[in-house]
Amino acid sequence: MTIHLRSDRVIFRFSGPDAHRLINDVVTGVMPTSAEEPASLWALLSPQGKILAEGLAAWAEDALWLDVHQSVADDFFKRMRMYRLRAKVDIDDFRETHRMGFSAEPTHLAHRDRRGPVTLGFRIIAPVEATADWSDDTAYHTARIGNGILHQGNDFPPNDTFAHDIGMDILDGIDFVKGCYVGQEVVSRMKHRGTARRRPVIVSGIDAPAGTPVIAGGREAGTIGQVVDGKAVAILRLDRITDPDAVTVDGKPVTLALPAWATYQFGEAVTEDAE
What are the alphabetically sorted keywords of the record (predicted)? Predict the structure, then answer.
């Protein structure tokens, strides 16, 4: 069995009688309550609705296990300790002891990575000593880019992007039923007023690094994320893509495609600017 090491992800474990309530009250997603459930997509938002951290959450061994990109791990840890207040929650930072991986089959501490209609195998968590023979994560990024899935740190920076921008409302990363959480007012407004105008788009035929602008009609529509085998996911202004066949990156023509799960179309415009 091949396991691909996600070396840029950090694991935190939240345990104690108030752990589930704490996470559920702070982040966007639906938090699992049993080990049989797949991992749940979530984001921690700023009061302005921008993503500060994002990842998957899974229940195992009477605790919630969350992963974040290494670039935001310190800030996430600090914020969660602040939100904890007097709640009976232990927060364990597993940077030194555990690693995260991706596999097509379950092994070690495994939960299915399911984001709405998209299934990306299993998220694997194991002690460092068990990961020596894990492969690099190129296969994982190939799979998630092909499905139009964006990751913080690889594709966009912290405190820059709304949850709707990366499709979390479609990929089951937002619980629209539960009560308030940080940034909830912005998320609800974007949903009910239809103000999401930036969305994930798969870009192929790229010969340029991540962060290069996507040009449509002479105007920048967004930038590309991590590039693997000439393909990336970009967060693009849909209203600026009036002719998908006339788009360039670094002066060269590229091909655009909407993810299979997309409920949006090129050329869509909104009546109100959420930014």
Answer: Transit peptide
d(CA 181, CA 138): 34
DSSP state of 150: -
Q: Determine which helix (DSSP H) or strand (DSSP E) holds 81, and give its type and residue range.
A: helix 73-84
Same domain, 147 and 70: yes
pLDDT tens digits, 163-197: 999 999 999 999 999 889 999 999 999 988 877 89
From first CA to last CA, the distance across the chain in angstroms is: 46
Collapsing DSSP states into helix, strand and coil, what is residue 262? coil
Count: domains in the chain: 2
Residue 109 lies in a domain: yes
Q: What is the pLDDT of residues 95-147, one digit of tens each?
A: 999 999 999 999 999 999 999 999 999 999 999 999 999 999 999 999 999 99
- Residues 152, 245: one domain? no
**Neighbouring C-beta atoms of residue 176, cutoff 10 Å:** 12
